[in-house]
Amino acid sequence: MQNFTLKQLRYVEAAGRLGSIASAATELSISQSSITAAIEALEAGLGHDLFIRTPSKGIRPTPQGTQSLVLIRRFLQQARNFQTEIQSVAGTARGTLRIACYVTAAPSFLPIILRSVTERFPGLSITVLEGPLSAIVDFVNEGEADLAFTYDIFKDAKHRFYPLFSAPPFAIVSNDDPIASAGRTSLAELSERQLVMLDLPGARDYYIDMFQRAGLDPEVAHTTRSSEILRALVAGGFGVALLNIRPLDYREAESGYRIVPILDGAPATPFGIAVSNTTGVPSMIRAFIETCLELSRDGAFDHLVVT
Question: In a designed cystine with 24, which of 15, 146, 179, 277 is the match (CB 3.0 to 4.6 A)?
Fold first, then answer.
């Protein structure tokens, strides 16, 4: 079997991740022929096809290609870790850190972290991958991300977890709802209203299960995959909603909706950082995690929690 270069493996990984040779060429600023040549060289060396080519629909991995891409991503991650370790010999974190974030939570806490990290480590570049709760840790498992921001209940035995704060669910109601003036609510009271549900894998089941455990069957009137649209629907009087992390830009007098605690809601769920525990943690990632933990100890995330 022939030897493959890191460049070829990066070309193949980009094509598989994006599902398109053209998109991979654009991302990497190279010609499509270079991507094609890398795929063909790898396929010839492995003795099997990595992708199925479909005219006008791009490419998709074969079963063997799917397994190969997982191995390629893990190897590329190890190569990146080696590179950053070498670059950090002088004691300064350098390189690119790829972080995966739960899509609805990222706008609330990520600016706080990135502001501190970029000030402390100016040589560090951040790439952010967003996704639903059910997919976040997969980014780490498949080598696409170095770490993930997620809830403790969504990590597994493959991960080491560093909690940053605990976030109980809260209700969002329109300003003219009686719940807003009361300043608190219960699951029974919320179940009497129509729900605007965050329809993302993991999130919907979490909130519905909370009602069902209390013997309640709420009516889901509207669904959305966007937390911004969810809040807009609530402000417009289309129902009530639930979230766990307070929006960073929430202003009670200006938002058109009110955030209130749920007295009998689910227990607070730890939110934090998940990293793979199957490999060593490079110094750059350790420095990033320690910065986040310092922010937590200093109370930087306290305003995101509704109690």
Answer: 15
Q: How far is CA 111 from CA 182, 246, 247, in A?
A: 32, 14, 12
Q: Which domain holds residue 33?
A: 6-64
- Single-letter code of the amino acid located at 269: T
Three-state SS for 295?
Answer: helix
| pLDDT class of 168 with cuts at 50, 70, 90 | very high
Q: Tell me the C-alpha distance between 200 and 179, whole Å.
A: 26
CA distances from 94 to 74, 115, 148, 183, 300 (A): 20, 16, 19, 47, 24
Choose the most confident range, by mean pLDDT, from 58-67, 134-143, 264-273, 292-301.
292-301
Residue 76 lies in a domain: no
Asked if residue 69 belongs to a domain, the reply is no
Residue 64 reports pLDDT greater than 70: yes
Asked if residue 249 is part of any domain, the answer here is: yes
